[in-house]
Design goal:
It is a single chain. It contains 16 helices and 6 strands. By secondary structure, it is mostly helical. It has 2 domains: 24-187, SecY subunit domain (Preprotein translocase SecY subunit, Orthogonal Bundle), CATH 1.10.3370.10; 196-447, Preprotein translocase SecY subunit. The chain has a two-stranded antiparallel ribbon with strand order 1-2. It has a two-stranded antiparallel ribbon with strand order 3-6. Helix 2 packs across helix 9 (191-217), helix 7 packs antiparallel against helix 8 and helix 14 (343-352) packs antiparallel against helix 15. The two termini are 39 Å apart.
């Protein structure tokens, strides 16, 4: 009986999808934009020697460049026009959110609704251009100083190369930012997240083939590969379970009389996610810890002794690296949760609309109770993020597994997939409601 019911539901969903013309247009538009993005990751910057660049990147891919190359879908390894990918936009968004907590002007804009949100988005775009310009200039200078056995990476270094590199990289980032906004408005899912998701997924076959090749050569045993496969499946199941987990606080609304009618008396829930911070904590923690390694790689091992010592202690799998990585994830989980969720504002909104949590006095006591529950949820979420990110990290360090099988990449892929599927289901549900409304109108006209 259960299987027959599931089959019937699947047939109804398929039938609804086949009739949802608007949804199909949105999906095709999203796929077309992502294809354009993938083409851009193969267009190289002008004035670059690809052979020398490949050798230099091979030496430095264990550092920060390896992580960002994973998020950029291989664009950094090819030094493409989308090498900066969408990361400056994400960094600018996080900076604006952090400034919202300390800037009265931004805090006021955040409370002004749609108009304030548009102004904040405009500030985020300005910040994206500034960050992309700084990062593009840094990449240009770094490329001019990089060299391999085949010679310099830059064919003709100088101010012209720096100017063209900065303009190209900034233009690529702004174009990706625009594409992401177009996907969000005219496609399916969050455009920025889908761009990062597509970059990771597009490089997964190459990473899988490289891992199997290591197994064929004997560098990794087949038992390790099977164990890795089982572990990835278990981690994905754990991510799905935790990302869907919520703590629902019961909210009740009192009854009120308007004229001769009695309204209200309803109850709802305030959902608090187990992992409010999402994938931000591991990205920030890994970026900070891998910075000394990248600096040492650029210096060619000729830097100060303390830098070489710190670099050796922060290699993958080292106890200090694991301890600091875990501490960074936990810190940023609490810090980012405090930024994106304000218990005082939530309590004020509940009080404004007459809602209250049973047994808790509205106002300050409600804010304290929400903060109490949220803090304990964040503890569990931080432990979950730490375990998900550290278990693959140990395998990467011990068996030379690509970054694409790390916890950060799995978090991004699973989270974006769940969000996109949820939006598709919402579109299908809205289409079904529209069909019911049209049928009811036709019946009314016939009568």
């Amino acid at each position: 009986m259960a299987s027959a019911a599931e089959q019937l539901a699947a047939n109804l969903n398929f039938a609804a999808f086949s009739k949802a013309t608007e949804l199909k247009k949105r999906i095709w538009f999203t796929l077309g934009v992502l294809i354009v993005y993938r083409f851009g990751t193969y267009i190289p910057l002008p004035g670059i020697d690809p052979v020398a660049l490949a050798q230099v990147f091979q030496q430095q891919q264990s550092g920060l460049l390896g992580v960002f190359d994973m998020l950029a879908g291989g664009a950094i390894g090819r030094m493409a026009i989308f090498a900066l990918t969408i990361m400056p936009y994400i960094s600018a968004s996080i900076i604006i959110q952090l400034m919202t907590a300390v800037s009265p002007h931004l805090a006021q804009l955040k409370k002004e609704g749609e108009q304030g949100r548009k102004q904040i988005n405009q500030y985020t775009r300005y910040g994206t251009v500034i960050l992309a310009t700084l990062q593009g200039y840094g990449i240009a200078v770094g490329l001019e100083g990089a060299a391999s056995g085949m010679g310099s990476v830059v064919i003709d270094p100088g101010y012209f190369f720096r100017a063209t590199t900065v303009i190209t990289l900034v233009g690529g980032t702004v174009f990706l930012m625009w594409l992401g906004e177009q996907i969000t408005a005219r496609g399916v899912g969050n455009g920025i997240s889908l761009i990062i998701f597509s970059g990771i997924v597009a490089e997964l076959p190459r990473a899988l083939a490289g891992t199997l090749e290591l197994g064929r050569q004997g560098a990794i045993s087949m038992a390790i590969i099977l164990f890795l496969t089982v572990m990835v499946v278990i981690v994905i199941m754990g991510i799905v379970f935790v990302e869907r987990a919520q703590r629902r606080l019961l909210v009740q609304y009192p009854k009120r009389q308007v004229g001769n009618k009695l309204y209200g008396g309803d109850s709802s829930h305030l959902p608090l996610k187990l992992n409010t911070a999402g994938v931000i904590p591991p990205i920030f923690a890994s970026s900070i810890l891998l910075l000394p390694i990248t600096v040492a790689n650029f210096s060619g091992g000729q830097g100060p002794d303390w830098l070489n010592t710190v670099t050796a202690m922060l290699q993958h799998g080292q106890p200090l690296y694991i301890a600091l990585y875990a501490a960074g994830i936990i810190f940023f989980a609490f810090f980012y949760t405090a930024i994106v969720f304000n218990p005082a504002d939530t309590a004020d909104n509940l009080k404004k609309y007459g809602g209250f949590i049973p047994g808790i006095r509205p106002g300050q006591r409600t804010a304290e109770y929400i903060d109490y529950v949220l803090t304990r949820l964040t503890v569990v979420g931080a432990i979950y993020l730490t375990l998900v990110c550290l278990l693959p990290e140990i395998l990467i360090s011990q068996y030379n597994v690509p970054f694409y099988f790390g916890g950060t990449s799995l978090l991004i892929v699973v989270s974006v997939t769940m969000d996109t599927v949820s939006q598709v289901q919402s579109h299908l549900l809205a289409h079904q409601y529209e069909g019911l409304i049209k049928k009811s109108k036709l019946r009314g006209q016939r009568r």
